[in-house]
Description:
Structural class: mainly beta
CATH superfamily of one domain: Hypothetical protein, similar to alpha- acetolactate decarboxylase, domain 2
Shape: flat
Largest sheet: 8 strands, antiparallel
CATH architecture of one domain: 2-Layer Sandwich
Number of strands: 8
Oligomer: single chain
Amino acid sequence: MRFLFLCCAFLSVVCAQQTRHEVTNSGGASDAKGASESVPDVYAIPTQFERVLIFRFKYEADLLAGLEQMVKANKIKNAVILSAAGSVRGYQVHQVSNRTFPSKNMFVKDPTAPADLIGMNGYIMGGKIHAHVTLAEPDKAFGGHLEPGTTVFTFAIVTVGVLPDSLDLTKLDDKSYR
């Protein structure tokens, strides 16, 4: 009986550990094209904040789902994610994992790893959230694109600067615009 208990305990620990999987993002024909002379190396979009909102998340709330809820409830089309603080009970993020097209993303998930939420930044473009998080455990800090499954522990606070709806941000995160 004790052996069975130990086996079950071992399996529950193994199943709860960090998982990783890589996904290739196919952009079709655009993956084969190089940089275009007609696309500037860098450009500016002049704007200003219309308002600033602070979102507060409670224990066990999903950060991405909560952001999506607040974007919809506050009718946010365009915004800058300025900062965040708090802690999480577990997380899922992804990072780019190669240097050539097609791009690849490494998804890292650990639903049982607590971490401090050191920061968040990114954009809301056309109502779509593109958020990056920085998390810290006792021995390291790490980050990536926020994914579903990042759940709040003590609390989380996220500050967003809302931009005009008329602003055209369509090319900002378009990897084929190069």
